[in-house]
Structures are given as C-alpha cells and as structure tokens.
User: Which sequence fits this backbone?
C-alpha cells in the first residue's frame, strides 16, 4: 500500500503526542502499511517531540518493524538448529525457486517477502515456517511452496 501522508498523520495523531506511545505508533504504522514509511518516521519524531535518531533506533531494533516495503505475505523460514537438522535448507530452496526471490527479498509484484529467522519456539514441530504470523509445523519440502502460496 502506498503511504498517504494524511493517513500517516491520522495514525500518529491518535496518540496525542504521548512520547511513551512511540512503539505503539510504530506498530500502528507497520500494521497499516506493512512497513514504516520514511515520512512516518519523521512525522512520528515531530509529533512525539523525540529525536529522529531515537525513532530510527526503535524502528531498527525490533525485527517486526521494517523500514522498507514488504510483500502482502511475509514468509519466515525457521533456520534454528532443530529446523536446520530437519531440512529447512531444502524448504528454503524450494520456496526461493518457486517465488523467484532469495531470503531477504520481496517479489517485484509485492506479494511475497521471504525472511530467514532463528528458532521460533516450536522445535518439536520442526521444520517450521510462518506465513503472516501463522505457524506451520512439520513442513514437508514438497508441499512448502503450496503452503506459502
Ligand atoms: S529451531 Fe525452528 S522452531 Fe526451534
């Protein structure tokens, strides 16, 4: 979704300049646009009267925030030890080939973003893949692409 300055400001204004709402504002922007647009960073700093560096610091600290546009579907392949042992590499290869993107990339049609993450806490269900925060465990290599599409 293309960021609209009025939409950005409306989200920020809901917090009435409350400095303690910095993370919440960024979460709201992230939720609305699927990333935090640059205009959102500067407008947040101004509205909450906090340094721009602090807003960037928070926005880059948490992995749930992104400062670059991401796809409609965010696919996270767990490459923690248990998932790695159970074939996460092959799953990643299947998905990369099927979507024609590498880990860390977004498809040109903005439908998919592929990320690699460490243990997501369901090692007993390894290998695990998250699609827009929906957990899929015991993922079979041959069904991985179908799962994310
Ligand atoms: S290593 Fe993948 S869920 Fe723990």
Assistant:
């Amino acid at each position: 979704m293309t960021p609209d300055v009025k939409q950005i400001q409306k989200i920020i204004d809901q917090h009435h300049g409350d400095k303690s709402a910095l993370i919440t504002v960024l979460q709201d922007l992230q939720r609305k646009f699927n990333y935090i647009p640059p205009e959102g960073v500067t407008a947040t700093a101004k509205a909450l009267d906090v340094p721009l560096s602090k807003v960037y610091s928070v926005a880059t600290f948490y992995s749930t925030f992104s400062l670059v546009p991401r796809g409609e579907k965010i696919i996270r392949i767990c490459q923690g030890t248990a998932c790695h042992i159970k074939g996460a590499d092959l799953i990643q290869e299947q998905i990369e080939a099927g979507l024609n993107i590498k880990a860390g990339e977004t498809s040109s049609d903005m439908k998919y973003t592929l990320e690699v993450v460490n243990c997501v806490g369901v090692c007993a269900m390894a290998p695990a893949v998250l699609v827009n925060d929906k957990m899929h465990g015991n993922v079979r290599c041959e069904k991985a692409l179908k799962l994310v599409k």
The chain has a mean pLDDT of 94. The two ends are 20 Å apart (CA to CA).
